[in-house]
Design brief:
Bound molecules: threonylcarbamoyladenylate, magnesium ion
Radius of gyration: 19 Å
Oligomer: single chain
Distance between the termini: 51 Å
Strand content: 15-25%
Order of helices and strands: HEEHEHHEEHEHEEEHEEEEHEH
Number of helices: 9
């Protein structure tokens, strides 16, 4: 062990080892964490979130070695991708080892693992010395939190401790890629793009299920990631409905009332998106309109989250 870890981290690690919940920052969004090897602790996550037990959790690790211990087998693609992108916003779904409790994976034979690129998250996992199962620290179907204040607003005293790492740098949830199928499959787009993954392991397939078919990533409900205020997508110069609302806009230059100017580059847009939606959701508007982002691969993950926030299944 090198330098002494800070006192709040030691306290949080002790809570994790005692089976309690700790909210912590990652580079994507804040997570609501529990010891992934303690089924009773993991059940507390589902209870706090009001989340159905049919949604599997991502397990956060402090090293590649820790990830391999959770996997029944570690395919070559996992080794290559972990070497390139970890720590970072990429979750790899692999066949799980028996030591991962079934409640972590919602009964699936696979587990999603990732090493977060955040010094507080890594220090917490290493101090607790256990993998940490953590979904985004919001209530079920709500907006993911990108600040400690968002977490406190959602849970109040319902979480033993919230570690504050300031605003999340990436701002939307990790890319989820399954390696537990014959050909790698993108289950959730994120800011590590399909193109960057394909540079390392070759072609990646998209999930294209028939309507009604069980999704291989059961947590990806339509109407996930939603503000309470109705949200819809509009074209750049589309007329807005009556009532009080706000428009999230990328293009155009003239200032206008209730227009929230969003960055025109995808990484900066992602980093701002949930904070802007959390903020507007507090204001009692009748609606939130969001200008459609450009149709291009770099905007795929943002379009996915906007479509879900609008309650429109992605790809439609
Ligand atoms: O960036 C993130 O991924 C954040 C931070 C906290 O790491 N976590 C997050 O967790 O977004 P959550 O629970 O809100 O979303 C995880 C999604 C699940 O909804 C599910 O779709 C997918 O990851 N997933 C997890 N384990 C899986 C598995 N074994 N098979 C298929 N999909 C899985
Ligand atoms: Mg979530």
């Amino acid at each position: 062990m090198e330098a002494r870890v800070a006192a709040p981290i030691e306290q949080a690690a002790a809570l994790i080892r005692a089976g309690q919940l700790v909210a912590f920052p990652t580079e994507t969004v804040y997570g609501l964490g529990a010891n992934a090897l303690d089924a009773a602790a993991v059940e507390r996550i589902y209870a706090a979130k009001g989340r159905p037990a049919s949604s599997p959790l991502i397990v956060h690790v402090g090293s590649i070695a820790m990830a391999r211990e959770l996997a029944r087998e570690w395919p070559d693609e996992a080794a290559l991708l972990a070497a390139h992108f970890w720590p970072g916003p990429l979750t790899l779904v692999v066949h799980k080892d028996d030591r991962v409790p079934d409640c972590v994976t919602a009964g699936l034979p696979t587990v999603g693992v990732r090493m977060p690129d955040h010094e507080i998250a890594l220090a917490l996992i290493r101090a607790a010395d256990v993998p940490i199962a953590a979904p985004s620290a919001n209530r079920f179907t709500g907006l993911s939190p990108t600040t400690a204040a968002h977490v406190r607003a959602a849970f109040g005293d319902g979480v033993a401790m919230v570690l504050d790492g300031g605003p999340a740098r990436v701002g939307i949830e990790s890319t989820v890629l399954s390696l537990a199928v014959p050909r790698a499959m993108l289950l959730r787009p994120g800011m590590i793009s399909r193109a960057r993954i394909e540079e390392i392991i070759g072609p990646v397939q998209s999930f294209q299920g028939a309507p009604g078919e069980a999704h291989p990533s059961p947590g990806l409900h339509r109407k996930h990631y939603s503000p309470l205020t109705p949200l819809f997508l509009v074209d750049a110069d589309e007329a807005l409905p009556p009532g009080r609302g706000a428009l999230l806009r990328i293009r155009g230059s003239e200032p206008a009332a209730r227009v929230v100017r969003m960055p025109a580059t995808p990484h900066e847009y992602a980093a701002r998106l949930y904070d802007a939606l959390h903020d507007l959701d507090q204001r009692g508007f009748d609606w939130i309109a969001v200008e459609r982002p450009p149709v291009s691969p770099e905007w795929e993950a943002i379009m996915d989250r906007l479509a879900r926030a609008a309650g429109t299944p992605p790809g439609v």
